[in-house]
Amino acid sequence: MGPHPAVAAIRLAVRRALHDILNDHQTSSAEKTPHERPPLPLVLVACSGGADSMALASALAFEAPKLGIRAGGVTVDHGLQPGSDLRADEVALRLRELGLDPVESVAVTVGREGGPEAAARDARYAALDAASARHGACAVLLGHTRDDQAETVLLGLARGSGIRSLSGMAAVSGAGGRYRRPFLQLDRQTARKACLVQSLPVWDDPHNADPAYTRSRLRHEGLPALEKALGKGVVEALARTAQLSRDDADALDAWASQAETAVRDAAGLLECAKLYALPPAVRRRILRRAAIEAGAPAGSLFARHIEEVDRLITGWRGQGAINLPGKVVAQRQGGRLVIRQG
Q1: What pLDDT shows up at residue 164?
Q2: Cβ distance 137 to 42 under 8 Å?
Q3: 3-state DSSP call for residue 79?
Q4: What is the percentage of the chain residues whose pLDDT exceeds 90?
């Protein structure tokens, strides 16, 4: 008799992700001389102790040895609750009991920039980046599910963000494709059921039910209200929207990359007349990229900033310079758009 359907589903998702990781690793290894070739690839799982990441850790421990992949784990202690250090140690112990090695518990200090959720996320990814580099891992698995994807799309929609934000989380992201999300096609309930039938202990973070957090309110109030009003299938539809938006955003990004060289003069300055001739979606991507290259932090550069810069091209009335985050200034000078440090 085979495994429970929920267990089979999560193992299949992880197996597919590991095959992709292995193919990428073998491609990069083939470019090296024999004495430079690394040992067996190491894949880490980021585990909070919740159902999603525990199911992911269990599937990684089961599938990795069959493919000749070493499997380890990292848990991050955000220090936001009393006893969080003890809980992180418990999660690390559970990972070791699954057979993962190396396993590490990393304590971080969460700042305040961008709000508590964003600050915790930034601290967590910085810790995962450092752990990956420390252990020489070729990938880190994250337990984000289809439900998480739906929430991310709705949050982007509520902020009035562009199509890139509506594309949600990518299955592969980070430097060199470090982060992999095998569960984006699986719902949260499947992961929880897989833990239940395997008798895996699960810790439910109280922050996930705290209405002080935007994502928590969306999860427990917003999405259920949408499903009540629109019927079942909202989560699946939002996740599908994310994929379609990602495909469109990727195509527009590629178009903008190709068009950028054609709208610069011999000195590399952006020519307003040529920018004006481009479709708005392409033009604004070029403007955003130019602002980031000048030093504007990507996370602080919002659609309203780019719209203001865009008006220097489409609604020119002799207006002055536009101040952007990171002390970057955009201004129109003699038919050219100059974006630089102020």
Answers
A1: 83
A2: yes
A3: coil
A4: 76
Q: How far is CA 192 from CA 56, 77, 189, 210, in A?
A: 11, 22, 5, 20
CB 325 within 8 A of CB 261: no
Structural element, H or E, at residue 13: helix 5-30
CA end-to-end distance (rounded Å), the chain: 68
Count other C-beta atoms under 10 Å from residue 314's C-beta: 12
* Nearest to 116, CA basis, from 223, 47, 207, 205: 207
Mean pLDDT of 125-131: 96
Mean pLDDT of 70-81: 92
**Angle, in degrees to the nearest 10, between helices 188-197 and 51-63:** 60
- pLDDT at position 33 is 57
User: For the chain, what is the mean pLDDT?
Assistant: 92
Task: Find how far residue 115's CA is from the centre of its chain.
Answer: 17
pLDDT band at 165 (very low <50, low <70, confident <90, very high): confident
CA 211/CA 36 separation, integer angstroms: 52
Query: What would the two tokens of residue 229 be?
Result: 């009003």
> Residue 90: what are its φ and ψ, rounded to 5°?
-65, -45
**98: DSSP letter:** T
CA dist 200 and 95 (Å) reads 11
The residue type at 288? R
Nearest to 286 by CA among 332, 253, 315, 321: 253
If one counts every other C-beta atom within 10 angstroms of the C-beta of residue 84, the result is: 15
pTM for the predicted model, two decimal places: 0.85
123 and 131 Cβ atoms separated by less than 8 Å: no
Residues 8 and 194: their CA atoms lie apart, in Å, by 9
Q: Is 76 helix (H, G, I), strand (E, B) or coil?
A: strand
The backbone torsions φ and ψ at residue 31, rounded to the nearest 5 degrees and listed phi first, read: -80, -5
